[in-house]
Amino acid sequence: MRRFNVTWWAYSFPITVLAIAATEYAEEVKGKLADVLMLVLASLSMLVTFSLVILTLLFNSKMLLPDNDPFVSSSAVTPVPHHLPTINTRTTPLDIGRNY
């Protein structure tokens, strides 16, 4: 088995589209073979999607939640670049009438 990669998610989309098409076909035809085809493709789609979720969580947790993520880390503060001016967005009632 090759090393897991996020691009494996590309396999889930065509299988899911086939399962949806088989469901619509089974509704129109109303036959046993169409129902079996729908059941097999829908089960395969769910199995592939569930497996990809598990594999993504197991092997790509570093990619999903990196150590230096500013949204996860509460101590991470993004510094303001020195070439940008700082803007004071807080105003007091006295500042409203002043012309600068």
From TrEMBL:
Keywords attached to this Swiss-Prot or TrEMBL record, sorted alphabetically, are:
Cell membrane, Ion transport, Membrane, Transmembrane, Transmembrane helix, Transport
Stored InterPro entries:
SLAC/SLAH, SLAC1/Mae1/Ssu1/TehA, Voltage-dep_anion_channel_sf
What molecular function does GO assign, one term? voltage-gated monoatomic anion channel activity
Membrane topology recorded in Swiss-Prot or TrEMBL:
Multi-pass membrane protein
Top-level taxon of the source organism = Eukaryota
Its Gene Ontology cellular component terms are: endomembrane system; plasma membrane
According to its UniProt record, where is this protein located? Cell membrane; Endomembrane system
Name the residues that span the membrane: 36-59
Q: Does the keyword Transport apply?
A: yes
Q: Specify one Pfam family.
A: SLAC1
GO annotation terms (biological process): intracellular monoatomic ion homeostasis
- Family according to the record: Belongs to the SLAC1 S-type anion channel family.
Q: What is this protein called?
A: Uncharacterized protein
